[in-house]
């Protein structure tokens, strides 16, 4: 088969896939872009991969901190597949970009983790606020980072997570600016999605939760907050990364913030009302 024919065949195959599967295949083929707005309608997830000897403590950490760390999927030890999230899903290749952590420091940001996978690893997939953004958009609420095609701004706060074993540290939050009436509606809408962070944890007054400058996010990209808007903050699944850093975990793998796993779960299936 010629290279042109192969490209045409691959394009046809991708066109026949569901949006979620197509997104994962794009990652396998080198897509390294943020996933906000990708595969609308499908649940996206944060990723934390840890050795089995730390997995129990991390699982407990997630149970104690369900707002930032709602577990929506978990692999068996050494198994890179999580069929409940996608039959063909391979956790080693299906995210746009990963982070490799050693002793609490990022040492590499590869586009796949085939070379880093081990038989003792357990993968956790945590709910992501991108899922409730679909509901916000359906109600006509503007999402600034989607409008500007950038990553959602994320901030470390002074809100302490409940510790479990070596895992302890500050909660990370995402921020979306809204006019006051829209902020009230956003609270109502996102309260329906507890498995993807649910209602906001804070509204307005960023300094009250330890954020000195909204223009300087710890992760993601800054977005403007207009004079008639207030910042609204949701718990974020990047929280494990701040905890891994604080605990100086010997080895871990996470997603790069804003570059998520797209699953075959439907956002609407997560709504509780």
Span between termini: 51 Å
The outline comes out as globular
Radius of gyration: 18 Å
Which second-level CATH architecture of the largest domain applies?
Answer: 3-Layer(aba) Sandwich
Tally of strands: 11
* % residues in beta strands: 15-25%
CATH class group of the largest domain: Alpha Beta
Q: Would you identify the CATH H-level superfamily of the largest domain?
A: PSTPO5379-like
Return the domain count.
Answer: 2
H/E element order: HHEHEEEEHHEEHEEHEE
User: Overall mean pLDDT score?
Assistant: 91
Structural class comes to alpha+beta
Question: Which percent bin holds the helix content?
Answer: 25-40%
What does this protein look like?
There is one protein chain. Helices cover 25% and strands 24% of the residues. The chain is globular, with a radius of gyration of 18 Å. By secondary structure, the protein is α+β, with helices and mostly antiparallel strands. It folds into two domains: 40-128 and 240-270, PSTPO5379-like, CATH 3.40.1640; 130-237, PSTPO5379-like fold. A hairpin with a 2-residue loop joins strand 3 (98-102) and strand 4 (105-108). The strands form two sheets. Strands 1, 2, 3, 4, 5, 10 and 11 form a seven-stranded antiparallel beta sheet that branches. Strands 6-7-9-8 form a four-stranded antiparallel beta sheet. The chain is built from seven helices and eleven strands. It is an enzyme of class 4 (lyase). InterPro entries: D-Glu_cyclase (IPR009906), Putative_hydro-lyase (IPR038021), UPF0317 (IPR016938). Keywords: Lyase. It comes from Bradyrhizobium jicamae.
